[in-house]
């Protein structure tokens, strides 16, 4: 698919796709005879994973590190796993923190409901 179709399907702007390609997150994008980018289903799976990492606050430098390890192949599997395990712990810590904040906000709302807050 072309960039416009891919951008729409992936819900990522064309500018972002070009940026990701420039910094190495999308290193193997094919080009047609006219030189236009051609994206495939594997590219969509990869961009969805990048978005998930971003949405869970993985720093771009870590996403780039993961991407570089991925390009190096199966020999980096253990390193990629470690990187994701560390990120998993960060995500769990963030969820716990957000649950605590949620509880505090809910408690404050209850005070309004029962009329104990001026």
TrEMBL record:
One of the Pfam families matching this protein, by short name: MerR_1
CDD domains: HTH_YyaN
Keywords of this entry: DNA-binding
Residue intervals of the HTH merR-type domain: 1-69
Secretion signal, residue range per the UniProt entry: none
Alphabetical list of SUPFAM superfamilies matching this protein: Putative DNA-binding domain
One of the record's GO molecular function terms: DNA-binding transcription factor activity
InterPro entries recorded: DNA-bd_dom_put_sf (IPR009061), MerR-type_HTH_dom (IPR000551), MerR_fam (IPR047057)
Identification of the protein by name: MerR family transcriptional regulator
Species for this entry: Shewanella maritima
